[in-house]
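#help-structures

NK: newbie question. if I give both the sequence and a SMILES, will the prediction place the ligand too? trying with glutathione
OV: yes, paste both and it writes out the complex. here, I ran yours:
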Amino acid sequence: MKLYYKPGACSLASHIVLHELAQPFDIEKVDTTTKRTESGDDYLEINPKGYVPALTLDSNDTITEGPAILQYLADSNAESDLIPAISDISRSKVLEHLTYVSSELHKAFAPLFKADTTDEGKQAAKENVAKKFDYLEGLLANGRKYLVDNNFSIADAYLFVVSNWANFVGIELSSWKNLSIYVARIAQRNSTQRAMKVEGLIG
Ligand SMILES: N[C@@H](CCC(=O)N[C@@H](CS)C(=O)NCC(=O)O)C(=O)O
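OV: that's the protein plus ligand as structure tokens.
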């Protein structure tokens, strides 16, 4: 299987999870501006939506949308314990957090990465991100190491990636103590270190 990614983008969550699995995989960088892959393929033929991530399986099927890719990887590698079984309430909690990161936190960051966002728009986006961070700070206040059952899940991989964007858009993550400790913890996982190294984000 092959993951299409952009360094540091939300595709990093899928990349981290791939490194959690005992499965061979390839990756290919995408220029989301020109819509070309590193080897020169037309990315729109792989994912007509034009954004990363996309995961092409050995069967040639392609899955898009980060949360769907994360669930596929976790479910098809159940021994990796990255998502609880169907009908386990903990699975619903993992999906609850995954959805929050996708539809609330990720979305809140979006204006901060757009070239045409005004200064006022950026300020409003930062305030919106801060509200989401406040919620997460409260959630982590009970000292939990991971979002659900003190067990690393696909929701942690995604929350790590999106929270870490704070460091690139002028939001002081250390203002949220519990969240910054949580982000630092996940940054230290082997899978995270390996994925970030391959993407050229750390030395
Ligand atoms: N709904 C999509 C959003 C993916 C997304 O926002 N991808 C961004 C990087 S984090 C991207 O590729 N942006 C470039 C573009 O849209 O041209 C998902 O969850 O996978």
